[in-house]
Design a protein that fits this description.
The protein is an all-alpha fold. Helix content is 76%, strand content 0%. The chain has one domain. It is built from 5 helices and no strands. Keywords: Membrane, Transmembrane, Transmembrane helix.
Length: 91
């Protein structure tokens, strides 16, 4: 059996998290709090994705992609909140 392509799996992991973001965006059209706190609310689908990926050796390479995309999302969310707080004078 051939080895899985690590680069492809990395981008697959990023894609899965991106699809989770899209799903949260659709759900939050009814309620804004999940979207405002996406840095934290993404744990609802990132943790199950990691558990799912660990169960199969062929999917283990997706975990770095999942964690990278989750980290980027968290940092961007934190930066946006910092900007909002700074502009509102809440620091």
């Amino acid at each position: 059996m051939s080895q899985p392509n690590a680069t492809l799996n990395f981008f697959k992991g990023m894609g899965w998290v991106f699809l989770g973001h899209i799903f949260i965006g659709i759900i939050t059209s009814l309620g804004l709090p999940l979207l405002l706190f996406i840095g934290v609310s993404q744990l609802l689908y990132v943790i199950p994705l990691i558990i799912w990926a660990r169960r199969s050796p062929a999917r283990v390479g997706t975990i770095p992609g999942v964690l990278t995309m989750a980290g980027i999302t968290f940092l961007l969310n934190a930066a946006c909140w910092g900007l909002i707080w700074g502009l509102m004078g809440l620091h």
